[in-house]
């Protein structure tokens, strides 16, 4: 094909080269990946059903947990089934439209998840530092406005990523060296200048994520300061146990992104499969851990699940 034909006739689909240099990775990774996927879907579904059916859980904090679970499930369904189809059936082809749709969902929903963590950190800050004002601050209206903000901010600011990538000319080369349609993995196949794509991905993505992280760290710093002043017996341990597990999970979510970026920067010193593996795991590991850390470790949700199980029997 010539490089002057328009994009609609140049490439109709892409091929995902998923660990082709390390075929053994596909074998040993498929089992834990499928188990993590089932755990993520099962745990998040259980959490959503419990919150939906238990009237005592119809509170702002649990609505935020429901939003987080929905985001996790969409991210898992967008990435993991396709990766497993490649591992098990060698179905590496993905259409032009499906590739850029996957790219958009991954970027927007990961940013939404980061923003949701920020709102949840603020919720914990108000609950611990201003408990008397909590019912008047964290209301159903607050959650509705927060959800609209989360959706609108990230849908709008991540929309240019697939648009900039889709407008490039792809002539002949259609093999993506990745398990997913990551922006830069796809853009590198084009003969056009991808400087703008790279700059927007880096500047836009890290501006949103870093602003969320700064507010999350600020919230948990204020929480820690308030907790250390508590005099009630056992209150410090309980607060630190709850918020500590939340903070560790958020730190894991952020750290794996940082490691992914660093491995890309140092790609000549590490195997090309390492950032690909991290990218795949980042779409399933947090989704499997979030409902356990945020949900199952919450006494009210555990009691709600137990009541539902008893009703089922």
TrEMBL record:
Q: GO molecular-function annotation terms?
A: G protein-coupled receptor activity; olfactory receptor activity
Q: How does it sit in the membrane?
A: Multi-pass membrane protein
Residue ranges of domain G-protein coupled receptors family 1 profile in the record: 43-294
Q: Which domain of life is it from?
A: Eukaryota
One GO CC annotation, please? plasma membrane
Entry-linked Pfam families: 7tm_4
What keywords are annotated for this sequence in UniProt?
A: G-protein coupled receptor, Membrane, Olfaction, Receptor, Sensory transduction, Transducer, Transmembrane, Transmembrane helix
Q: Where in the cell is it found?
A: Membrane
Instruction: State what this protein does.
Output: Putative odorant or sperm cell receptor.
| Designated name of the protein | G-protein coupled receptors family 1 profile domain-containing protein
